[in-house]
User: Which sequence fits this backbone?
């Protein structure tokens, strides 16, 4: 199904989805817009009073900061809900014309680029910080009595566009076990019982560190935290749940100023053993680098000063980082029974639509230029230059402009990892196909896009 609406520019795709309070829509971009929904470029000074970080009160005046941010929460929620409603809906609005037939320059000058293809801001972009879906918050509270609720913000996307929870976990060393978690969320309370018989002591210790809470920018003991009570912190698996993802969001820590920082859609850790670049843009060179970077810098918005103040966890590279990386390197992609040893479809098992989709993937769609079999990544980074389709604009504190080069993420098991793109702006695989059809100027027809979707679901 597709949830994309682009300024009224796309056509409905049939699906069975519950309409939610944020009002998502299901659309496609093959048609030209019937009606433009303007996105106004504004300055930071024009933002609503609630759409800012609460920095006016002294650091030690926590009650005043919390009261201010709680008061601003409804306005922030409405502002972001309005943005989502302008991009995503479930209504059926056929439109005439062919947007994909227009040139990037024409789309840019006429302001017709689908709103759902623009960078997606954080629910409070000037504030930022880690933000978790409610189902994850509830389960962690149940198991550990650790509350990941923020008093200033709630997660923005509805549950039905997020990954399965809790997701299965597969080990490269014990494929015979299937889902090692047996349908449970792995936490500090149960990891030992679940894994003691299939991991060696180093790997087990690495997993323990991955599910151990450590201080983080918004969840710690300092008075500038965003939890009501002093907090033990977050774990690696609070975002990379069961070695996969729950679509938790954050802002990248390595870009300034604030409006240029990208929203993060937490990527899966499945298959990191075949990857050589880590982080959507930082291009960290090993899983060890990534693991150490996360707790030394990313946990604290890239500020070593905040890290020292709030309780940095300095991991020891030769043992702790190594143990954590060793476990992560065991995380496998989910089974794909229709693929052969080369990572392509077995004609005896695949449907005709899937085989046609594979031909498009490796042919007209040019997908394999970056996403090469068997794991469907080239281990590199590419600049899509999407900015050639739209003019720079400030959207709820996020400057929609140049994204720059982005890591080629593996597509194995891609159906299990919504939403898509590095910032989660594309809610479904249908939307993702439409995005690349437009950005790469592929001019795929409706039948070709449908077949390509069938192939992606088989990976």
Assistant:
């Amino acid at each position: 199904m597709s949830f994309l609406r682009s300024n009224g520019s796309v056509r409905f795709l049939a699906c069975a989805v519950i309409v939610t309070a944020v009002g998502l829509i299901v659309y496609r971009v093959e048609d030209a817009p019937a009606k433009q929904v303007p996105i106004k470029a504004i300055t930071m000074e024009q933002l609503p009073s609630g759409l800012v970080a609460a920095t006016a009160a002294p650091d030690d005046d926590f009650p005043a900061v919390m009261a201010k941010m709680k008061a601003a929460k409804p306005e922030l929620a409405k502002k972001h809900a309005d943005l989502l409603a302008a991009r995503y809906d479930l209504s059926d609005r056929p439109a005439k014309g062919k947007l994909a037939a227009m040139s990037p320059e024409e789309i840019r000058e006429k302001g017709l680029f689908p709103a759902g293809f623009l960078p997606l801001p954080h629910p409070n972009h000037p504030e930022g910080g880690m933000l978790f879906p409610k189902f994850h918050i509830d389960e962690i509270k149940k198991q550990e009595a650790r509350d990941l609720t923020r008093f200033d913000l709630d997660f923005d996307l509805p549950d039905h566009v997020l990954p399965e929870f809790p997701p299965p976990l597969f080990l490269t060393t014990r494929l015979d076990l299937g889902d090692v978690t047996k349908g449970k969320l792995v936490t500090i309370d149960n990891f030992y019982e679940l894994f003691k018989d299939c991991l060696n002591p180093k790997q087990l210790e690495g997993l323990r560190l991955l599910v151990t809470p450590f201080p983080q920018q918004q969840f710690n003991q300092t008075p500038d935290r965003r939890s009501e009570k002093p907090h033990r912190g977050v774990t690696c698996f609070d975002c990379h749940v069961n070695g996969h993802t729950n679509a938790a969001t954050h802002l990248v820590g390595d870009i300034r100023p604030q409006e240029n920082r990208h929203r993060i859609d937490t990527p899966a850790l499945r298959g990191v053993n075949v990857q050589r670049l880590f982080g959507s843009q930082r291009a960290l060179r090993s899983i060890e680098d990534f693991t150490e970077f996360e707790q030394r810098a990313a946990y604290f918005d890239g500020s070593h000063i905040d890290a020292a103040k709030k309780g940095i966890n300095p991991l020891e590279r030769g043992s702790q980082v190594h143990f954590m990386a060793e476990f992560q390197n065991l995380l496998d992609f989910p089974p794909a029974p229709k693929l052969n040893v080369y990572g392509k479809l077995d004609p005896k098992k695949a449907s005709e639509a899937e085989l046609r989709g594979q031909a498009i993937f490796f042919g007209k769609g040019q997908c394999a230029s970056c996403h090469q079999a068997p794991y469907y990544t080239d281990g590199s980074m590419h600049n899509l230059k999407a900015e050639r389709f739209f003019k720079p604009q400030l959207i709820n504190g996020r400057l929609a402009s140049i994204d720059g080069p982005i890591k080629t993420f593996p597509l194995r098991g891609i159906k299990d990892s919504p939403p898509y793109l590095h910032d989660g702006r594309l809610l479904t695989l249908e939307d993702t196909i439409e995005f690349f059809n437009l950005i790469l100027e592929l001019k795929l027809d409706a039948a070709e896009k449908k077949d390509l979707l069938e192939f992606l679901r088989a990976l």
Remarks:
- The radius of gyration is 22 Å.
- The chain has a mean pLDDT of 88.
- The first strand starts at residue 249 and ends at 251.
